[in-house]
Amino acid sequence: MKKLILSIALCCAATSFFAQNADPAQLVNDGKAALEAKNYQEAYTKFSTYLTQTNNQDSVIAYNCGVCADKIKKPAEALKYFDIAVQKKYNLANAYIGKVSALKDLKKNDEYIATLKEGLEVNPGNKTLTKLYATYYVNQGIMAQKAKKMDAAEEAFKQAIAIQADNVNALNSLGSLYYSKGANTMKTDVEKAKVEFKEAKEYLGKLIPLLSVDKPAQKKMMDNAKTMLNFIDSQLK
């Protein structure tokens, strides 16, 4: 048993030695070939070995290594390498997208939001980062609704719209929320209900032009919105 353990130890040491002394250019070439062939595990191994040898100085390879780590479900490693790309300002928007994806997989919620905000400050108007940031607040609103925290839900949906004005899920949620408020308030305060219906109408009116009848989910959303608008108009006469 001792000989077996010694043999395994020697093999590991030899592997480490050869990895540390492999030709850097060859590691990069082999990594690129593996990436081209979509052999992400092999590409990750080659790229990460190269980066270790070169003290993580190559931003391009760091980014590619992050992509490979993401593909093979290694979010901690993906975070490390995408962060290197971010710090070195390489392919910055996509590096931020990779970084926030890794943070989401790692369930690092506070860092996820902070990085989205930072990414948009550096890459203003980036559609993917904008959508991810808005979607976070939409999901927060949905969770608040399920917990019957309607004020928190309303605030979250409004935050989503502040980030992405044409976010159909946020617009639909706010329209539906104010519609429900108005329907409930009608029982006790007609004038207040009319104010809430007008709020609902504003959001639903912005929503409908953004929807497509060719997409089943959006077609259903559109039909529901039109039904609500018809009822609202009947109450505002």
TrEMBL record:
TPR repeats located where?
134-167
Asked if the record carries the keyword Repeat, the reply is: yes
The record's listing under Gene3D superfamilies reads:
Tetratricopeptide repeat domain
Specify whether Signal is a keyword of the entry: yes
Q: Which residues form the signal peptide?
A: 1-21
PROSITE patterns annotated for this entry? TPR
**Record keywords, A-Z:** Repeat, Signal, TPR repeat
The protein here is known as Tetratricopeptide repeat protein
Task: Give the source species.
Answer: Bacteroides muris
